[in-house]
Design goal:
alpha/beta; five-stranded antiparallel sheet; three-stranded parallel sheet
Amino acid sequence: MKNKICALIALSLAAALLIGCAKTPASGDSTPAPSAPAALSGEVNVYNWGEYIDESLLAEFETQTGVRVNYMTFQNNEEMYASLRLGGSEYDVIIPSDYMVSRMIAEDMLEKLDFANIPNAALIGDRNKAPEYDPAGEYSVAYMTGTVGLIYDSSFIADGDIIDSWSFLFDPAYSGEILMIDNPRDAFGIALKYLGYSLNTTNKDEIQEAYKLLSAQKPLLQAYVMDTIFDKMEGGEAAFVPYYAGDYITMKESNPNLRFVLPREGSNVFADAMCIPKGAANKRNAEAFINFMTATDSAARNMEVTGYVSANAEASKSYAENYDEADRAVLFPADDELADCESFINLPQDILTLYDELWVSLKA
């Protein structure tokens, strides 16, 4: 297990879980002041990525508030989006990625947040308070940030191979030892970056070229993966997989042969955020849950378990200090490593439709 976040921070900030200043993040005051939380009851339905929370926090939230947490998981943004589009009105808190937050705002799928109920949002670092995907900062509170890189098992690597490129995901020499991330934006994004294009391109010829590359890759694959990656990479069953830096930090504890690299062609820098779907039945409870998860103590414990970097600036700073130089380099890459990286943005509907059609064809 990773080193514990320092006990002093945990103790001194535990009281901030459900209290804080009455100011919104726009106030510029990053130091919440105590106020009594409103009485709560009932339930809150939380829909999150798999392997992406310290589940002991759910029980603690229930104890402190009396609100029952019903916790459900999804594997990718598109699955979450489709569930809501198909009538998934039972969810109160969802945690989509940047580009999906932007899309859902544009499609009027999210509630505006009442930041009087989320005072701990003031603890979010400045760069994540009014991000490109939610420029007015009205619909979301940033949760975690990170990068997508190439994770590899050094025990599989042939002598002389220097792993610094996405090219190994398409190399016949490693046929049957390659795993591919099972969501369309990341998969196409990787192919596009390898080909020298933007992962946000709207050029249909470039997207079709990426589709051909992914089609040629398919016979080389052992599997498409999301949550199943943990068993496979921790068990030494595959050589390569593109995945999230935070999950690498977790998996390498079970398999010390694992390594992580940001490929030279560039990659995705992402942020995930907590939001409330339009028409949520338990909006007040949802805001209390978001506030609880944004508190420094909660964020620090959450990072310890998940390996990801919280958008809470205080927790993130303490988190960095508890890792060795190699892991800090993975979690907090240098500016020159990020020079060719991009964040996903929402795309025009005709491009989204093309992605959907090509992904269905690829997976058929």
